Amino acid sequence: MLDLHGYGPRLLEGAGVTIQLAVLSLALAIVLGLLTASAKMSRSWLLHRVATLYTTLIRGVPDLVLMMLLFFGGQMALNLVTDALYDRFGVDWYVNLNAFAAGVLTIGFIFGAYMGETFRGAFMAVDHGQIEAGKAYGMSPWLVFRRIRFPLMMRHALPGLSNNWMVLLKTTALVSVIGLSDMVRIAAEASRATHEPFTFLIPVALIYLLIASVSEWVFLRLQKRYSVGFGGH
Amino acid sequence: MQDITLWFQDLLAGNLIFTPQTLGYYWEGLVTTTQLVFLSLVIGLVMAVPLAIGRSSGRRWISLPIYAYTYVFRGTPLLIQLYIIYYGVVFFDGIQETFLWPMLREAFYPALIAFTLNTAAYTTEIFRGAIKATAKGEIEAARAYGMSQGLMMRRIILPSAFRRALPAYGNEVIFMLHASAIASVVTLMDLTGAARFVYARFYAPFEAFLFVAAIYLCLTFAILYLFRWLEKRLLAHLKPA
User: Fold this and answer.
1) Overall pTM > 0.95
2) Which of A175, B48, B107, B133 fits a disulfide with B188 by CB distance 3.0 to 4.6 angstroms?
3) Which residue of B has its CA nearest to A196?
């Protein structure tokens, strides 16, 4: 039954690609988001400006356009660099930007901007007395971040984080357009080849719903974990 | 007009990519994108009002099917929805004999249907949240005046719910503008479609995509300021004094 004209196993592989893509992009987005939030809260005028420019530009342009810009433009820029290396130094080195890497970079880059906003709000919601207490104990800034600011911030960030993750998950579908064989691309190919679109597209839609439902459950657990000590939330 | 044309030709002289012809493609793309986004938003908005009222209803046989609809459309990628409608529309029995077929055969209408159903689902949930947040006192006051359910909805709940929904709806409009870029995947020549065409023809990714990104950015800011202005006018009473 799960054979689907022989496309079943490939579709499952595609689902694996989608999940890997989503998780790696999320990791990159969280790192970029933390950096952006720190830059926005820093006293440096320049850092603040750069972070604001980043979040404004990213949130004003469609994901697909950014993805194509990075994938097609990135390949061209890489070619220019490798060509120059060959001309100057005779280094024969060619890099082919693959769709997976381009996808992770673009999606991570896009959602880093959204995460930045989420984290900034959450960091500002942390009671300042806690940070002062950490300093009074002689903790280094990094230790204060790791033991106090980050865990306390997560409680406020989780709802936004979960929301961003749901949008990110759906955005991974766009990488099929630049040629990555995720489950959407395989389903679309199979639909065209067999003229049975529903057979392939509806299972893919159900897999997305399944991933979304599982993540909802995970985030609920996390929310409980990070709310320990805040009285029944 | 003559002057402008001359000035324009002067500006473009020596530019291999941004010729009047390619700018024409971008212009047509802008028109297609605007039509697609505007129409789907308007139809989606009209659909969302009754759906949101039904979704807030206490009767589960009304609210549950609507919840199922919004859950599915908000939980799956728009691209999948577009593919299902674009590739699947042929399979409705007898549709090829109806007057609708010449329209549905083109990519524009399947895209319009997909976008409309998608935005209607999101807007329904936005309105539902706004309806739920109506102050209890207002409803009690309306009941005390002897208003019927319909009258209360029309005079008390909806007007204030629309205002509360405004900021979230502004985000939805921008989201829709950005989501419309995937129309180019089903061969539609929208803004992104024009950029892909220019890229393929001149192999100039930076020019093609940066230019279109700038257009989207301008559109986004226009929507942003429009909603900010609307909020200032309609939500003035909620501002802290």
Assistant:
1) no
2) B107
3) B88
